[in-house]
Amino acid sequence: MTSQFLLNGQCGPEEFGGKAANLSRLSRAGFEVPAWTAIGTGVFDTYRKATGLGARIDAALAEVSADNADEVAAAIRAAFAATALDPASRAAVVDAYAEVAGGAIAVRSSAVGEDSTGLSYAGQYDSFLNVVGVDAVADRVRACWASTYSARSLTYRLLHDLPGQETGMAVILQRFVPAEVSGVLFTANVLSGRRDEMLISAVYGLGEGLVSGAVDADTVTVDRTSGAVTDVVVGEKRERITRAAGAGCRTERVEPGRRAALALTTAQIHLLRATGERIEELYGAPQDVEWAFADDRLYVLQARPITALPGGEGAGDDVRVWDNSNIIESYGEITAPLTFSFAREMYGRVYREYCSLLGVPRSQLALMEPDFASMLGYFDGRVYYNVLNWIKVIGLLPGYRLHRRILAAAMGVPETPVERAHRPRPLQYGSRLVTAGARARIAVTFGWYCLTVKPSVARFLRRFEAVYREVDAVDYARLPAAEVYRRFTQVERTLLAQWGRMAVLDNVIMLSYGVLYALTSRWLPDAPEWFRWHVVKVGADVGSTLPARRLIELARDLRRRPELAAAIRERPAREAYDWLRVAPGPSAARLRDGLDRYLHEFGYRSANELKLEEPDLREDPTLLMSMLRDALEVGDEPGPAVTEDADAYLDAHLRGPRRWVYERARRSVRAVLRERERVRFARTRAFGMARRMLTAIGADLARTGALSQARDVFFLRLEELRGAFTGTIDHRELRPLAQLRRDQQDRQRRLPAPPPRFVTTGGTYWGQRRADAATVDGAEAGDVLRGTPSSPGVATGEARVLDRPGDAGANIVVTYRTDPGWVGVLASATALLIERGSPLTHVAIAARELGVPTVVQIPRLTDRVATGTRLTVDGAAGTVTIHAEEA
Questions:
Q1: Mean pLDDT over all residues of the chain?
Q2: Which parts of the chain sit beneath pLDDT 70?
Q3: Strands (E), 768-826
Q4: Domain that holds residue 432
Q5: 122 shares a domain with 254
Q6: Entry's Pfam families (predicted)?
Q7: Of 78, 276, 599, 721, which is least surrounded by CB within 10 A?
């Protein structure tokens, strides 16, 4: 059994994998490669045989297909986690770790066939950074082996007709380099396909922030002959990933003065170009090189061939970028087929009308029809934006670069090289002059909408209210399904089709906030992070806060009636609501009236309110009672002290004409944010109406036997439901379709969620995903987590980790994501922490107005914090301190 490979020795790809073979070649050619060794494929074989794991894996792989790759991969991963190393394999790991002198290392997969000239396998397998200690190394070696059978590697092999059972996996142990600057060098321009240019992407700290897309990067284009820098795009590098004390890595803020500066010096750029030329000469083909600078030395971490260049073989592949960062607030977790298909149609209508409102000619609208029909994607039951289609639509407007920069700041999703390489052209005219004329007309039209936002929204809301009052007054449960469907299509034609103005409004917000953001960067470069979002507080009376304020009022009134309050406290939420409906006395009647008014006004504002399958507060008021009890426990004492004040900061740092200009821009942002909240509340009620109608249709179809049960309607797609009333589907197909989807959803719930962002090439029906991200081992290790400041203030208390609102109590609420229905928890929460989100989301805006300290975009928050963990939240600094458990 070959157990390891020593630095500078001979290394064959069949025994040590493609990545190790490339490192061997680089080392022997004299490049500065950090000390490393490799654990050969023979150790992997020994482990599988000695533990009996190999037979179980082979049995699972015999049944693998494109349809069940995720399920098979999850089962295999669980088997690896439950199977310890046999003595011989552990001895090999111990010896290999000793060869690189122990301490902090990177543990990298090296599969047979990986990084070959034909197929790169980039992103298919796992790697881990800053791993310390032999036990941790052994665990990570097993994890690398397990990634041999990850869903993405299995589907990759299916796509390329590669054998699944004969996969060999070696593992590289390499000295960890605490990089000051790092990145990727492409010895040919992967954006344009030009072989006479090199492309350098660079970030502060470790390069994994660049590879995963978590950190914005600089992009430098270099002429390979002269060495001249021909193009520079400086990313706003607000964060860097660095080594944490002990093991693991952490995200740090970059000093404000360095964010807009180029990470590389001129000398470093020239050294990278020269090194890239030598590496390409060594391999005889363009290379993708990962590098790092530490202590003024350039380290080559790995190199792989560039397997496809634009304009060359493989360039015609249909590349799609999928991302859920900007949609997870509305469609988190598993989403029912009816909701997805309804949302897909809605988004198509919205963006079609958006383009029409901007004056896009009909001929161009016809060409964009396929884009409108596929603005959203559906993977393992999760909803994703089709990013390149979105870029095509948004790119119609001037200032796309500014828009994209603000999206990166708000959502934490910087533009990636794949986006830049495949960015589509919005208009398809043969003449540049005609294109310029069309874009000018669109810009003028958009400018008019910017100036007339308020009256435009007012007109839309007047029409909406007229339709809403009429439609919401109907009891659809008493109508036959065919009549409900007829009314549903009427609402679609008269109301839902007009929602393009909301897309225009969102882009007005991005433009106006982009202007303010640019002014802040230029005139207030040292402004703290909290200031950028706190400066656009909308006002205490914004509609976002009304549900929370109404709950606070109800709780205050209930607190004056201790007997009634005690009766509410001592019963479960649903039982308390049912008891209150029949409870005697004026106090109970007063509370009933208050709750009825709340449900009438805000009954559609509930958790997952845009997911049609989720009951709203009108259907199930249990959540309302739960939030009321939480607010009851808080009392009338003041909330956390907020010492940060945007006006005071402006008074101290900006005066004169600049202050006047800044305030004008600030008022503009506040005004459009206020209008957006009004329109979004209308959207909430529109989806609530649709939910009532579709629920009634499902109930009637179940009564007639077309469905097994009423809620099976949500397992149909909208086009299938339409077919039941238009004669384009046999009604006998509905029951088996619903059962098929129900079973499929049960399987999806057992699978790990797809990554937040990934790339597909060609047929997405294979489930193939390329998420080119290494694992930052132990990210945010230590006692302090960092995210994006959203609402200032300091709070200390116990965490309450929730996956839906309710039972928050007077605690620090911790969650993976929120939607507008979470605003009720702000009535009791002492602070709010969100792993995925934006400072411009509905709940973040409401939290600022209510003075609730809030931090968003906190990596691995829900992995690190459990209910009961004692925390201190600093909303201005964007930090969460985890306090040690008291003995």
A1: 84
A2: 1-13, 66, 113-125, 156-167, 209, 211-215, 308-317, 399, 408-418, 420-422, 497, 540-541, 635-644, 762-782, 885-887
A3: 784-786, 788-791, 794-801, 812-815
A4: 318-451
A5: no
A6: PEP-utilizers (PF00391), PPDK_N (PF01326)
A7: 78
Same domain, 340 and 372: yes
Same domain as 185, residue 171: no
DSSP H or E segment with residue 186: strand 181-186
Domain assignment present for residue 866? The answer is: yes
pLDDT for res 37: 93
766 domain residue, yes or no: no
CB 291 within 8 A of CB 185: yes
Report the pLDDT value the prediction gives residue 335, as an integer from 0 to 100: 96
Tell me, yes or no, whether 324 and 202 share the same domain: no
**Model confidence pLDDT, tens digit, residues 9-20:** 455 667 888 888
* Polymer length in residues for the chain: 887
CB within 8 Å of 144: residues ≥ 6 apart: 107, 108, 109, 125, 126, 127, 128, 169, 171
Supply the CATH number for residue 227's domain: 3.30.470.20
> Which amino acid type is present at position 637?
E
Backbone phi, psi, residue 613, to 5°: -75, -15
CB 628 within 8 A of CB 568: yes
Asked if residue 215 and residue 119 are part of one domain, the reply reads no
CB atoms within 10 A of CB 751: 17
Point out which residues pair with 288 in neighbouring strands: 186, 304
Pick the closest to residue 669 from 508, 504, 501 (CA basis).
Answer: 508
Chain center to CA of 388:
16
Both 83 and 112 in one domain: the answer is yes
The helix/strand/coil state of 61 is helix
CB count in 10 Å sphere of residue 150:
21
Would 531 be classed as within a structural domain? no
Q: How many domains does the chain divide into? A: 4
Burial class (CB in 10 A: 0-12, 13-18, 19+), 552: buried
Burial classification of residue 651, based on how many CB atoms lie within 10 Å of its CB (0-12 exposed, 13-18 middle, 19 or more buried): exposed
Q: Which pLDDT value is given to residue 782?
A: 56
Q: Are residues 45 and 164 in the same domain?
A: yes
Query: Rounded to whole angstroms, how far apart are CA atoms 883 and 653?
Result: 35
Helices and strands, number each (H, E), in the chain: 32, 24
Residue 715 included in any domain = no
At a CB cut-off of 8 Å and minimum separation 6, what does 555 contact? 628, 631, 632, 634, 827
Q: Answer with the one of 451, 485, 504 that is the final residue of a domain.
A: 451
Domain boundary among 451, 470, 487: 451
Q: Which helix (H) or strand (E) holds 876?
A: none
pLDDT value at residue 751: 76
pLDDT at 157: 67
SS3 state of residue 385: strand
Q: Which H helix or E strand runs over 238?
A: none
Query: Sign of the CA dihedral 422, 416, 772, 66?
Result: negative
- Structure tokens that stand for 602 in this block: 């805000």
DSSP string, 716-759: S-HHHHHHHHHTSS-GGGHHHHHHHHHHHHHHHHHSPPPPSEEE
> Can you tell me the distance from the alpha carbon of 600 to that of 807, in angstroms, rounded to the nearest whole number?
23
Q: pLDDT tens digits for 90-145?
A: 999 999 999 998 899 999 988 876 544 444 444 456 788 999 999 999 999 999 99
